[in-house]
Design a protein that fits this description.
The complex is a heterodimer of chains A (263) and B (243). The termini of chain A are far apart. Chain A has 263 residues and is mainly alpha-helical. In chain A, 81% of the residues lie in helices and 0% in strands. In chain A, helix 2 packs parallel to helix 9, helix 4 packs antiparallel against helix 6 and helix 8 packs antiparallel against helix 11. Chain A has 2 domains: 64 residues, no CATH class; 186 residues, no CATH class. With 243 residues, chain B is mainly alpha-helical. Chain B folds into 2 domains: 62 residues, no CATH class; 164 residues, no CATH class. In chain B, 85% of the residues lie in helices and 0% in strands. Chain B is built from 10 helices and no strands. In chain B, helix 6 runs parallel beside helix 10. The longest helix of chain B has 40 residues. The chains are: A mainly alpha (263), B mainly alpha (243). The interface between A and B is large, with 100 and 104 residues.
């Protein structure tokens, strides 16, 4: 009974999210475009699927994944687990947090694979590129970027180094890569930074950041707890452009090699 | 036939979730050496997640993508740049302003600001601060989609715009109050929700494919990138103006 109450609460919240979009589209169709919407029935059925699907998805996450993720994040960053029960720790030793980095990387990878917005963008990119951009190729590349980003982000929280330094260096890398990357991947690479962080990743990663910064000695959750999401949206840009550059280089080499053989 | 499609969707949703299951199992059993707590609840939740994801993807192909693209085509055919930009701004603003993640972040930011002594710690000024932050983020997302659409129309190369955005972010980082920087960086990531992203992607791709001389791959993407860059600038700007 309680579950049905929760589910309907989430359903109402999802409807509220969709409401402005519906008002906007209907308003524009009626007032500006003044024409009926094509395939209206199919669209409505699709819209209902999206709302119900998202509500079920969120309800399931709240029931299964989020509590579990929170418990695990706090257990792994617990000083007793990291340093053993006897030691009294006043200064964080970054080398002791190996499991935390690994957990951050793996949970970042796994949640990105399940991220619905990324599924949507990968689907579109595959369609638009006539199949040259593989859905799974893009998703795995982005997920590796998120994994690396979040892992580095937890390292930053443990060491307490300033956030902006990492972000500035990351931006530098992106700028340099932009100069050399194939032109047709750039827009998609920039986009993949923004899409990685939504429904699944943000709550888990935020919990990890806040839990870690409140358990690591000498860290302040208010100052150090944020920033993981920024890492998770910066590094996919780098990996996607890097992957495209690698493929370009590989194809070039294969082509050159082929020409040499032909001669 | 229908059953086959449904089964296929559920199978691919299950594949999407498999990594999460593996990671959690690995850490629970091997590293933390504990049994999964509340096994039944977790299994039931997992079932919901798989069904939900399968339905969502199905609805995406049937509803969200086609409506985004057909709006883009219709607006491009109408030929009125004014209405197109209006639609772009309204789409960005309206989907962001009520975004639960943003409301949560704005509230957290207000609390941090009051702890840092930057604003008064009464609920009145907290509310005002959080509301102002929300409005500036929503406005910035609207503006971002507008700029992105204008870029598609004019065919400007995306990297000049994004890189100059980065430079602005870097410069503002040096002058903005320290307390707001982490939130500003994160604000870029939380604004783009699961329903907005497919719609915006379809809008961009639809627009780029209906304008002659634009490639959907080179010009159609990039709207989301603007929507995650501009909020950073606006949140830091908001921090600068308020304090």
């Amino acid at each position: 009974m309680e579950f049905i109450y929760e589910l309907s609460k989430i359903l109402i919240a999802t409807c509220r999210d969709v409401l402005p979009i519906i008002i906007l589209i209907v308003g524009f169709q009626l007032l500006v475009l003044r024409q009926p919407i094509p395939h209206l029935r199919r669209l409505i059925v699709g819209g209902v699927y999206v709302v119900i699907g998202l509500a079920l998805f969120l309800a399931g996450l709240e029931k299964a994944l989020f509590p579990l993720g929170n418990i695990m994040a706090s257990q792994l960053s617990d000083p007793v687990f990291i340093y053993g029960a006897e030691e009294v720790v006043t200064q964080a030793d970054w080398k002791a947090y190996g499991w935390v980095y690994l957990f951050a990387a793996m949970i970042g990878f796994a949640t990105t694979i399940a991220e619905p917005s990324l599924i949507a963008v990968a689907f579109k990119a595959n369609e638009v590129s006539a199949g040259t951009i593989k859905q799974w190729g893009l998703r795995i590349t982005v997920a590796i970027g998120v994994a690396f980003g979040i892992s580095l982000g937890t390292f930053r929280i443990v060491t307490g180094t300033p956030l902006y330094l990492y972000i500035l260096v990351g931006y530098m890398i992106v700028i340099v890569q932009t100069i050399f990357a194939p032109k047709n991947i750039i827009a998609l690479a920039y986009d993949s930074g923004g899409v990685t962080t939504s429904t699944v990743t943000v709550p888990l990663v935020a919990a990890l950041g806040l839990g870690l910064s409140s358990s690591v000695p000498g860290r302040n959750p208010a100052l150090d707890g944020f920033g993981l999401i920024a890492f998770a949206s910066l590094f996919p840009i780098i990996t996607v452009m890097g992957y495209a550059q690698l493929m370009q280089w590989y194809n070039q080499r294969k082509k050159n090699h082929g020409e040499k053989n032909a001669i | 036939m229908i059953i086959k499609t449904i089964l296929k969707k559920i199978k691919s949703a299950f594949t999407d979730l498999l990594p999460i299951i593996l990671v959690i199992a690995f850490f629970q059993i091997i590293v933390l050496k504990q049994a999964l707590p509340q096994m039944g609840e977790v299994l039931f939740g997992g079932l919901l997640v798989v069904t939900g994801l399968a339905l969502f993807v199905q609805g995406l192909e049937m509803g969200l993508f086609p409506i985004g693209e057909s709006m883009a085509h219709a607006l491009a055919k109408k030929g009125s740049i004014f209405w197109l930009l209006c639609f772009a701004f309204a789409l960005g603003f309206s989907t962001t302003v009520a975004e639960p993640a943003l409301i949560a972040v704005a509230w957290e930011a207000a609390e941090i600001a009051s702890q840092g002594g930057l604003i008064d710690a009464n609920s009145e000024s907290l509310k005002k601060y959080a509301f102002g932050l929300r409005m500036s983020v929503a406005f910035s997302v609207g503006l971002a989609i507008l700029i992105g659409v204008l870029r598609i129309l004019r065919g400007w190369p995306i990297h000049y715009l994004i890189i100059s955005g980065y430079v602005v972010v870097m410069l503002m980082t040096f002058i903005a109050p320290k307390e707001i920087i982490g939130i500003a960086y994160d604000a870029g990531g939380v604004t783009t929700s699961t329903i907005t992203v497919p719609l915006v992607a379809a809008l961009g791709v639809g627009l780029a494919s209906s304008i002659r001389g634009r490639s959907p791959l080179v010009d159609g993407f990039g709207l989301i990138a603007f929507a995650s860059l501009l909020p950073m600038i606006f949140v830091m700007g908001y921090g600068l103006i308020i304090f």
